[in-house]
Amino acid sequence: MQTKKSENKKEKILKTAIKLFAKKGFAGTSIREICKEASTSLSMISYYWGGKKELYQGILDNLFEMQTKLAETFLDLKLNPFEMTHEKQVETLKLIANRTIDFFYSNISNDLILFLVKEQQNKDFVPKSPMFSYLRKLIAGLLNKDENDREVIFKMLFFMAQINSPRVLPAFSLRQLNQEEFTQDDIEIIRKNLNDYIDLIAKGI
Length: 205
Known about the structure:
It is a single chain. The chain has helices at about 5-25, 30-40, 40-50, 50-75, 85-105, 110-120, 130-145, 150-170, 175, 185-200. By secondary structure, it is an all-alpha fold. The protein folds into two domains: about 1-50, Homeodomain-like (Arc Repressor Mutant, subunit A), CATH 1.10.10.60; about 60-200, Tetracycline Repressor, domain 2.
């Protein structure tokens, strides 16, 4: 069982690795550099992950684990969206939207966003979050289409873009707002825009 001290050390290593991988990429970042910046030893990284490749994957696994734990607090992933009423599908989609916004704007650092943007250039990168899978199935159920239908996939992408794009594209958001961070008022506007989009999907628009 991990102590609080060891958990804090592991978290510090993860944060340092995210920052360096985001800035320099996988190839440009060395384990020794991560150790130096995190004030830790090579043996600690070996103990928790094994090596650089495993540490890199550990960042992704940690994120998906956080998303899974989040989903389990408010979703029953065993419920089949195709068996829900139209009203329940819309209600569940809005619940996912609101909880995901809260998670994204309070738990995801700017370094992690940059890390994920770079990681998507990797052809082998596939999000493994059960919440994403459920979201896709939910939208398919709402549209009464197959999960692999192109409209379902694009609707899901537009859904996520409503949440992600302000932070992924700071030149078109924060710099236009002339501020360093998003305020609670900004987040509420993002929330309203996404809920309005869900209403359009529900109406078949």
